[in-house]
Design goal:
By secondary structure, this protein is of the alpha/beta class. Strand 8 and strand 9 form a beta hairpin. It is 31% helix and 20% strand. The chain has 2 domains: 114 residues, Tetrapyrrole methylase, N-terminal domain (Cobalt-precorrin-4 Transmethylase, domain 1, 3-Layer(aba) Sandwich), CATH 3.40.1010; 122 residues, Methyltransferase, Cobalt-precorrin-4 Transmethylase, Domain 2 (2-Layer Sandwich). The strands form 2 sheets. A 5-stranded parallel sheet has the order 3-2-4-1-5, sandwiched between helices. It contains 8 helices and 10 strands.
Length: 271
């Protein structure tokens, strides 16, 4: 077996958030097997010579299974090909990487994992929310709204007040999630935010509370939800900052134009 499989993290959507290693592997790949939630912006930078296949569970090829994906990776590796198994966010977080690595091990296929910026970090950065803050939150819990055998919140109880919850794949079942959050001990007044297509040009951020979550407009996939006191604290800071944002932006631009590296890359990078 001369080929190799790379489990590559595509990050949350912005191609500039791909790691240098991920970029290098993608440019040299013979086959790219990508999830359905990998952004169009990233798909557009894949090499035209590569065989690019959507193996997402929502893609047009009906009935594609995890076993078929595993078989495809192993078969291509046995043909001596470089395979990039491209996953949204980070491969090791809610990406079925465990099942795929087990299949590759059993087949004796060489593989490597290339981490990516997980959706939680991309979404939090876009919404300007620090997931931890010594004044508000000392714990972060990542979970998915969909687990094998049931939803991800039903077993959560007695949540500490200083916890930030990041819920992957919430779908549009907001009323059900709000009920589960309240059953877990999170009050109706606790702020939350839904971030859709984080870091892309189609990004949408909707801020609400647990009690009003059911009224939140449906978000396009991929989306993610952040729940906790820190969400409200960040919104308050943004509101105060908005009072001087225009003046501050002009000051930053003025300083950037004076910077000795301003013309090094054709501009300041400040918009």
């Amino acid at each position: 077996m001369r080929g190799k499989v790379y489990l590559v993290g595509a990050g949350p959507g912005d191609p500039e958030l791909l790691t240098r290693k991920a970029w290098r592997v993608l440019q040299s790949a013979d086959v790219v097997l990508h999830d359905d939630l990998v952004s169009e912006e990233i798909l557009r930078v894949l090499p035209p010579a590569a065989q690019i296949v959507n193996v997402g569970k929502r893609c047009g090829a009906k009935g594609i299974s995890q076993l078929e994906i595993n078989h495809w990776m192993v078969s291509c590796a046995r043909e001596g090909k470089i395979v990039a198994r491209l996953k949204s966010g980070d491969p090791l977080l809610f990406g079925r990487a465990g099942e795929e690595m087990e299949a590759l091990r059993q087949a004796g296929a060489e593989f490597e994992v290339i981490p990516g910026v997980t959706a939680a970090l991309g979404a939090a950065a876009s919404a300007r929310i620090s997931l931890t803050d010594r004044r508000y939150a000392s714990r972060v819990v990542f979970l998915t709204a969909h687990r094998a055998g049931g939803t991800g919140l039903k077993n959560e109880r007695h949540i500490a007040a200083d916890t930030t919850y990041v819920i992957y794949m919430p779908g549009n079942r907001y009323a059900e999630l709000a009920a589960e959050l309240q059953a877990a001990g999170i009050g109706v007044e606790i702020p939350c935010v839904v971030i859709s297509r984080a870091t892309t040009k189609n990004e949408l951020i909707s801020r609400t509370t647990v009690g009003k979550l059911s009224q939140c407009p449906a978000a396009a996939s991929p989306s993610l939800m952040i729940v906790g006191s820190i969400v409200g604290a960040a919104a308050s800071e943004d509101a105060r900052e908005g009072e001087v944002s225009e003046e501050l932006s002009l000051e930053i631009l003025s300083l950037a134009l004076q910077h000795p590296f301003h013309n090094s890359y054709g501009g300041s990078g400040v918009e």
